[in-house]
Amino acid sequence: MAKLWTALLTELFLLLGTSGYYNERRSQCLYSSRDLNDMVYIDSYIFNKIEWIRFNSTVGKYVGYTKFGIYNAELWNNDTAFVQQEQNDVEAFCKHNAEIYYSQIMDKTVEPNVNLMSLKQASGSQPAMLMCSAYNFYPKKIKVSWLRDGKPVTSDITSTEELADGDWYYQIHSHLEYTPKSGEKISCVVEHASFQKPMVYDWDPSLPESERNKVAIGASGLVLGIILSAAGFIYYKRKSSRPY
Ligand SMILES: *[C@@H]1O[C@H](CO)[C@@H](O)[C@H](O)[C@H]1NC(C)=O
Ligand SMILES: *[C@@H]1O[C@H](CO)[C@@H](O)[C@H](O)[C@H]1NC(C)=O
Prior knowledge:
The chain is α+β, with helices and mostly antiparallel strands. It folds into two domains: 2-106, Roll (Class II Histocompatibility Antigen, M Beta Chain, Chain B, domain 1), CATH 3.10.320; 113-209, Sandwich (Immunoglobulin-like), CATH 2.60.40. It is built from four helices and 13 strands. The model is unreliable at 1-14 (pLDDT under 50). One 2-acetamido-2-deoxy-beta-D-glucopyranose is lined by residues 42, 56, 58-59. The chain crosses the membrane at residues 215-236. Residues 112-200 form the Ig-like domain.
């Protein structure tokens, strides 16, 4: 009867969320090199936050941390087939899955779309500002730098961090402040795993396309106007010189 009551009370506590039991088995694959040579497999058993037994593939057996754990470690370590199976998981579980993560995600690269634009024209003593943006690249690691007449620029550069778009892709923006000199060449250099070599993007100081279109439309209007006025003038001249 007492047992039943305890069971009911336990259920009640679980329902109320004030108490309960938390049983956890945590399998970890720890590695730091791409060739997976330093792979370690850790298999932990945890009860109410207390890890009571752990298999560590470097040690090659179970180690107990509580009285119950020490007892079970001796028992489980006596079963060589069981221990061997855990040891095999370095290959069968850890390395196998790590290879999948590398081939499906981590080894993949996506080229950035690079855009170079003017943020500010120079005016008076105020320097001009260019922005070099790289969009939609993967992985995160990237280097954006600047060249002035082929020489690396070391000052007056500010850059954002690599910003996560939230869809595995990243973007970054680098700003260069400079006082324009006529005839000089400014370039943005982007280095990324998706490129065979550093990519150089030269700044074209002529007007951007939208500005060029406005100029073209304006010039066409002017030409049309001149032609129509000339035609009108000729028509007027002919008509007025005709004898009545
Ligand atoms: C696994 O065992 C090795 C060798 O004793 C030790 O250096 C390492 O810290 C252990 N790793 C864990 C997570 O217990
Ligand atoms: C484990 O094996 C050893 C030697 O075969 C034996 O003495 C010991 O009692 C065993 N331990 C358990 C918990 O079965």
